[in-house]
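Reading a protein record of the kind used here takes little practice once its layout is understood. The reader may check this reading against the record printed directly beneath this paragraph.
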Amino acid sequence: GKQYLFLSCPAYEVFFGGQAGGGKSDALLMGATGSAECGIFNRPKWKAVLFRRIYPDLEKSLIFRSHQLFSGKMKYDAVKHRWTAPLGGILEFGHIKAEKDVYNYKSSSYNYIGFDELTEFSERMYMYLFSRNRTDDPEIQCQIRSASNPTGIGHGWVKERFINNLQPYKIHEFKEMVPTSLEGIMEERSITRCYIPSGVFDNRYLMDSDPNYIMRLNQLPDIERRALMYGDWD
């Protein structure tokens, strides 16, 4: 149910997660393929990217899982870390280990940008990639998507951006006056943002297949248990 809310949410910027075991990585992967009406399999100009902070984490999580989901449906390039659909749509994987690494993407453009474990990134890394979020296909909606548990170096700014200021499940609109020409003509534009909590108690597939996972989470020290088992951002 929570994955469905995440995938169908029309907000521009959506943050998913809280507890461990909520199906966050799968949701990001499926979101990066778009919908049946407008997605990687029917839009040649579809271009998505999913980030982790370091490549080893990317390889053993998102890339590994993507082969289980997409093998036989798309072609994978192991050098470029990229899936290509039959009509030319692309889903690639990237990592941003250091602040300067954001400039590796300065000439890129993606209509879907996703961050797995967002609290591992700095706010500057996250915000810079907004400049790479664009499309020249009017049928494709640009999206920023992310998922994470509490804790991590970016815990504070993620909590401030998505948890402190946003009522869960509600789409919030943020309006700004922005220039629309070099002459300085200003117009009011808006951006929408939504936080969708999800965790192990929402994931019936995990609860049924591995019911003792809850017991293992319960063995964690207090702070980690509160963060991962209950999605406690405080």
About this structure: The mean pLDDT is 93. Residues 55-70 form the longest helix (16 residues). The chain has eight helices and nine strands. The helical segments are 2-8, 24-31, 55-70, 123-128, 155-163, 204-209, 213-217, 222-230.
